[in-house]
Amino acid sequence: MAPMPMSSYPKKIKIVEVGPRDGLQNERAQIPTEAKIKFVHGLAKAGLKNIEATSFVHPKAVPQLADAMEVLTALDDLPEDTDVSVLVPNMRGLDRAISAGSKHIAVFTACSESFNQKNIKCGIEESFERITPVIERAKAEGIKIRGYVSTVFGCPYEGDVDPKVALAVTQRLLDLGCYEVSLGDTIGVATPRSVQKAMSVILEGVGPEKLALHFHDTRGTALVNVFLGMQLGIRVFDASAGGLGGCPYAPGAAGNLSTEDLVYFLQGLGVETGVDLEALAEASLTLEQSLDHPLPGRTVATFRDKFCREKQSQA
Ligand code: HMG
Ligand code: MG
Predict the structure, then answer these.
(1) Model confidence pLDDT, tens digit, residues 74-118
(2) Cα separation of 296 and 304, whole Å?
(3) Does any domain span residue 4?
(4) Among 1, 25, 233, 314, which residue's beta carbon has the most beta carbons within 10 A?
C-alpha cells in the first residue's frame, strides 16, 4: 500500500472514550464512586463528546462497576452534546440502564466461542438470543445501540480468528439495529499486517462508516494500527484516558490505547479531535490518585510532574 499523502488525512476523527468502563473494569483497588463521577466530568470538560461511562454487567462479574446506577445518575448535568453510553450484556442489564436514565447502550459479543464462554457464559449463537430482545426493546424505547465484536484480531484461548466470522457477527449486529460496530483487539495482538488481513475481509461486506476500531495496547502497536485503520477509511477509534484498561476475562490484555497518546498523534497529523490535551491529562491524573499504580499511558506521563507540583502548591 502506498503511504497516505498528508493532504488526504481526514479532517476529523471521532474518539469514543471508554476509560470509565473498559479502563476501570480491570482495576483491582476499589475506586470511590465520587472519583469515577469526577473522572467522567473531567473527560467531558476536556472536550470528549462520546464517553462510555460505566457498565451494567453482573456486579459479580465486574465488582468494580457495581455502582453503575450511582455513576450514571450523577452525570445528568453534563453538557447536552456529551453523548454518554453504557455497556449492557442482557435484559437485566438493560432494565438497570433504563432505570438509570440511559439513552445510549453498547451490546457486545465476540467472534470466538471460547472467549464468549469465559466472558458472558455463552457461545456466539446464544449471545444473539440474548442481544436480539435487548436491541428490540432499546429501539422501542428510542435508545441508541452500539455494538462490539471482541477478539477480531486474535483470541486468548483460540489464537487466530477467522475474519469471515468477524464479518458475519458484525453484519448481524448491524442488521439488528446497531448504528456502528466497534471491532476489538481484545488482547492487543494486532499488527498492521493482521489488521489489513482482517479488514480486507470485513470491509468487503461492511462500509467503513459503520465501523470503529478498538485497540488494546499490550504490545505498543495500537497507534500504528490506528494509522492503518485511518488509511482504510475508519474515522472512529476507541481509546481510554491514561491508557487504563483490560478485560478481566481476557488473560494478557493490557490497557486500551491511551486517549492522550491518540490525541497527541492526531494533533500532530493536523486532524481535529476537539480535545484539550492538558485538560484530559488532568482528568486522568486526578483519577490516578485513586489507583494503586501509575497510569500506563506515555503522553499522560509528560504532564505528571506539572500536575503534582500544582497539587502540592494547592495543599
Ligand atoms: P449469568 O450468571 O449467566 O446470568 O451471567 P444469568 O442470566 O444466569 O442470571 C443469574 C443471576 O444474575 C440472576 O439473578 C440475574 O437476575 C442476575 P437471580 O434471578 O439468580 O437472583 N443478573 C444480573 N444482575 C445484574 N445485572 C445484570 C445481570 N444479569 C444477570 N446485567 C452475564 C451472564 C452476561 C450477565 C455475566 O457473565 C456478565 O455480566 N458478564 C460480563 C463480563 C464483562 O463485563 N466483561 C468485560 C466487558 S466486555 C469487554 O471488555 C470487551 C470490549 O471492551 C471490546 C474488546 O476489547 O474486545 C467491549
Ligand atoms: Mg476492550
Answers:
(1) 999 999 999 999 999 999 999 999 999 999 999 999 999 999 999
(2) 12
(3) no
(4) 25
Residue 5 falls within a domain, yes or no?
no
Q: Please give the number of the atom of ligand 1 that sits closest to the Cα of 249.
A: 45
Q: Band of the pLDDT at 212, cuts 50, 70, 90? A: very high
Residue reference for cell 498523534: 265
- The ligand minimizing its distance to the Cα of 244 is 2
DSSP 213: E
As for how many domains the chain has, the answer is: 1
- pLDDT of residue 186 exceeding 80: yes
Query: What would you measure as the largest C-alpha separation in the chain, in angstroms?
Result: 57
Confirm whether 155 is a catalytic residue. Answer: no
Q: Please report whether residue 54 resides in a domain.
A: yes
Neighbours of 156 (CB within 10 A): 19
The residue type of 155 is C
What CATH number does the domain containing 51 carry? 3.20.20.70
Neighbours of ion ligand 2 (CB under 5 A): 22
